Each structure stands twice: as C-alpha cells, then as structure tokens.
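Comment on the following before class.
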Amino acid sequence: MAAPAAAASLAVAECAAPSRRYGVAGRTAVAFLAVAAGALTGCGHGNPSAPPRSAGSFTDGGVRASVTLERTAADEVRLTAELAPQSRGFHLYSLALPDGGVDGLGIPTRLNVSAPLSPAGPVSASARPYGLRLPELDVTLPVYPDGPVTLHLTARLADARATSTRVLLSYGACSSTAGCRPPVRNHPLVLPVPQA
C-alpha cells in the first residue's frame, strides 16, 4: 500500500493527465482522494497557526463527554469539555449547585484538572442555568436547559516538559419525566499535554 503522500502524488498525477479508461467518475474519485490524502498529511490544507491540541472522550451515566486541550501559551492550556446527554429531554445540573447538592439532591457539574495543570480561573458554561422547581420535594435545583453543555477552563501549566495530565469530570443527567441516569463522580480522562 502506498504511503499517503505517495498516494496523493499519484492521484494528482492521474488528475493532471486523465486517462480515458477512468472516465469522468474515475477522475472525480481520484481528485477526491488527492484532496483527502493531502488533508490527512497536512499538505497545504491545515492551519499552521492553529494552537497545538489534544482530545479524548468517554460515555458514562448516559452522557457523552468530549474534552479538548489547547495550548494557548507556553504556560497556559485552555480546556473545553462538551457534555452531551445521549437521550432527548435530559438536562445536567449547574456548576452553581453546591457540592452536596440541595438537601442532598442533584449531582453538581464539575471540571477539574491535576498536575501539571492548575486552574487559572473559574469554570464557565455555555448555557445559562435556571431553577427547576420540584414541588413534591419542596426544592429548586439549578440546572441547564435540556441538551448539551460546553464547559471552559483556562489552566496554568507548571512544567512545560510534561507529557500528560488528568482531567476529572463529575455530572448527573436527569429528566423531568424519565428520572435520572447513574451519577458520574470524578471520571478520569488522561490526555497528552499539547506541546508548544
């Protein structure tokens, strides 16, 4: 099997000097492969000024969690975590929910990092929470609207030579009609530290 760069060169050569045996459909497919191979090898299709990144994901407690680390300075990393409930009609509890919940109810959403990263400020969320009133329990819980929520955190990098870090996520997904999924507390995700 040809290497991607060689395949791209071959595909470009085929497109530049099309043969009758391939026809229009064949030339179109070859041109598509040339562009795809170039994108995979970074040949002129990437953004050389884009900051280095790493990413990982997991699914737990009925939520798909996708985390991205982006190196924004020599000693700074920006974290983005998207928490997406896998079923319609499910919400996540707010960052504002106290650690123990309200009267023991609710699982607060949390994004934490470990060495060599440390928070440079508070975690923020893409959605605005609202008070979900549970009259049968005489309590109001801060939750995000149904659907995905994206969390943001800027962190300081203590050691520029560090190769990995651990991100911890906690959350609970609930529905007003279908109950709650099992809570997730401090689920670890080990990610490479993007190199500058």
User: Anything to note?
Assistant: The first strand starts at residue 53 and ends at 60. Confidence is low (pLDDT under 50) at residues 1-45. The chain has two domains: 4-41, 53-192. Residues 4-41 form one domain.
